[in-house]
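This part of the workshop introduces the protein records we will be handling. A record pairs a protein's sequence with a compact description of its fold. As an example, a complete record with its sequence and its structure tokens follows.

_____
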Amino acid sequence: MNQPPASTASRQAAVAFIFITVVLDVLALGIIVPVLPPLVVAFLGGNTARAAQIYGLFATAWALMQFVASPVLGALSDRFGRRPIILLSIAGLGLDYILMAMAPTLGWLFVGRVISGVTSASFATAAAYIADVTPPEQRAKSFGLIGAAFGLGFVLGPVMGGLLGTVNPRLPFWVSAALCLTNALYGLFVLPESLPPERRSRFSWARANPIGSLRLLRSHPELFALACVTFLYYVAHEVLPSTFVLYTTYRYDWTPRTVGLTLALVGICTAIVSGRLVGPIVARIGERRAALTGLACGAVAFAVYGLAPVGRAFLAGVPIMAFWGLYGPSAQGIMTQRVQPSEQGQLQGAIMGLRGLSGLFSPFLFTYTFATFISNSSVYLPGAPFLLSALLLVVALFIAWRVMRTAVGFSGSIAISEKPAEHA
């Protein structure tokens, strides 16, 4: 099936497949979360301190590959279409999990993690597919479904990984491989191409490399400003995976069970807002106000997290944090209307590249902040990392408010750039 989906029903079916693909890919990523650190410890003969250092290297390498590969895959999808890039990435991720399941040494496990960083960059192509098949006024709702897919996958993945890991620490890798390969086989028969040949553009390394891809974000002042806001959004988000467990265990004496239940609650609230509420809210107040509301909710929630004296107060911030999810789909919906159809892959690759770039240094920023403020006798502030994230979102909110207030078209319809595409 290589023709673009034409009818409403076929478009909905294509979006549904992309939703399922993201769920399964994130589920596969989440399944290995509980078993990958213990596996690294086992390879190092039980040396936990050394394993923590190596695991940090794994995380940095994964983020670096996201930064490098996202623009490349996005540009390739602009040239050859979304379908082959999505299917090859899914299949590649499945084969990579087999490699990790059979890894005889720590070096091979590291190679597998690097490859997974490359193949997981297909999320950019999935987002470009959504932009291809969805009318501009409905894109925020569709991007919200992608956010819901992430939330659902991260809720179910670690739970499944923990259960499977008790049977065998390598079993989660085999299950992840089976999920990805089955999905790739299914997509081979049901996924149509979304980008017709006449709307494709030539592949160029000048546009596909991480630095070159950022030039597209500078092609419009509004697009560049929103890219800066999105980068701050991604940096602020890194406080959760880098310090959440450390912080809640240190300050509230939470057990692994409490941490797991809280993460499940976060995922459920995120899925509800992203999957059910983004569309109606954007339809009622518009993408601009929805994006600003999301940033404001994120700043408030991080402030609650950082200042909460007890665990129950911390939990009060979870539903507020869920509405932070309004920003991503709304901002993506706005940004997709500022580029040509033949540039959607490059745009999404550049956005995912920003996410990878934030992952290169943000974990160190927040863990260092946490360590500094719990060991400083004069200024003892365990919640400092979350307060820093709140401050970053306040800055992002100000930038977004300024650009959306002054930019022509942001209050209503947004004109697509008239720059001609360079077709193949």
Notes: The chain has 17 helices and no strands. The chain has two domains: 1-192, 213-410. The CA atoms of residues 145 and 276 lie 8 Å apart. The longest helix spans residues 256-307.
